[in-house]
Amino acid sequence: MPSETITLKTEDGDFTAYVARPSKDKAPAIVVIQEIFGVNAVMREIADGLADQGYLAICPDLFWRIEPGIDITDKSEAEWKKAFELFNAFDADAGVKDIAAVIDHIRADPGCSGKVGAVGYCLGGLLAFLTATRTDADASVGYYGVGIESRVGEVEKLERPLMLHIAEEDQFVPKEAQAIILQALKNHAQVTAYTYPGCDHAFARHGGEHFDEAAAKLANGRSLTFFQQHLA
Predict the structure, then answer these.
(1) Which of 15, 33, 78, 126 is packed most tightly, with the most Cβ within 10 A?
(2) How far from chain centre, in Å, is Cα 130?
(3) Given 105, 165, 201, 210, the catalytic residue
(4) Which strands, in side-by-side order, build the sheet including 3-10?
(5) Which DSSP symbol is given to 71?
(6) Rounded distance, CA 22 to CA 57, Å?
(7) Phi, psi (5° rounding) for residue 192?
(8) Cβ-proximal residues to 94 (8 Å cutoff; 6+ apart), any chain
(9) CA neighbor of 211 nearest in space, from 115, 121, 104
(10) Distances (CA, A) of 178 to 117, 152, 168, 169, 224
(11) Among 71, 67, 66, which Cα is nearest to 39's?
(12) CB count, 10 Å around CB of 170?
C-alpha cells in the first residue's frame, strides 16, 4: 500500500499532507483530521488502515500556519505542553478552510471516485463537525470532538450525513457540554450520535493512556459501515 507526502498550494500558502493509497485504481477518499499532536504516527496509521479498507486517505498538516511539520506523541509532559500551546493558538475557521481545499484537491485526484468523506479526532472531532456544516464533504465522522457545544448552532447548515462518537467520561468535554450537543442534534435527520459509557477522551487512540479496545472496535466498525453506506 503506497504512501507519500504531497504539497497543496492555496491562496493562503502551501502545506503538506500524508496520502495513503489503496490497491484499487478508483476509490472514495477520506480526509483524516489530526489531533493536537500533528500528523504523527497515530494519524498515519489511521490513514494506512483506511487505505487497507479500500479508501484513498489524506491527512493534512493543519498546524502549518503556526508551525509546519508537527509530529509529536502523547508520551511526555513536554509534548503535551507543546500540543496544548498549538491547540490554543489554532484558528478553527482557517483550519476548515484548509480542509475544504484538501477536499477539492483529493476529489480531483485521478485515484478518487469523486466521493469524499472526513474523519477527525479530538481537535479533529470539532473540525469534522465543522467540515460537515461548512464544506461539501459527502459524509463526516467526529470522535470526541472538543468544543462542539459552542458551535451547535451550525447544525442548521448541515445537509450531509454526520456521525459523532462521544466519550461519556471525557475530561475535555464535560457532561453539561455533552448534554448541549446531544440535545441540539437529537432530532436532526442527518446526525447519528453514539455515546460510550465509562470511556474517557481519546478512547480510540491506539497506544494512548485511555485506549479502550472494545469501544474503539465498536466505534471504528460503526464508522466504516457509515462510510460504506455514504461514500459508495
Answers:
(1) 33
(2) 10
(3) 201
(4) 3-10, 13-20, 56-60, 27-33, 112-121, 139-143, 162-167, 191-196
(5) B
(6) 8
(7) -120, 125
(8) 12, 65
(9) 121
(10) 24, 11, 8, 10, 24
(11) 71
(12) 23
Q: Please give the single-letter amino acid code of residue 10.
A: T
| Dihedral pair phi/psi, residue 117, rounded to 5° | -110, 180
Catalytic residue among 98, 138, 170, 200: 170
Nearest in space to 135 (alpha carbons), one of 97, 169, 165 = 97
Q: Using one digit for the tens of pLDDT, what is the confidence trace for 108-129? A: 999 999 999 999 999 999 999 9
Residue 33 is placed in which grid cell?
483530521
Is residue 188 flagged as an active site residue? Answer: no
- pLDDT, tens digit (0-9, with 9 covering 90-100), for 162-191: 999 999 999 999 999 999 999 999 999 999
Alpha helices in 20-174 (DSSP H): 41-52, 77-89, 92-107, 123-134
In this structure, are residues 127 and 120 in contact, taking their beta carbons and an 8 Å threshold? yes
| CATH code of 185's domain | 3.40.50.1820
Amino acid at site 28: P
pLDDT band at 15 (very low <50, low <70, confident <90, very high): very high
Give me the number of domains the chain comprises.
1
Name the β-bridge partners of 117: 30, 139
Whose cell is 491562496? That residue is: 11
Contact 196, 217 (CB under 8 A): no
Does residue 58 sit in helix, strand or coil? strand
Residue 87 CB neighbours (<10 A) = 18
The chain-wide mean pLDDT, for the chain, equals: 97
Residue 18's domain comprises 3-231
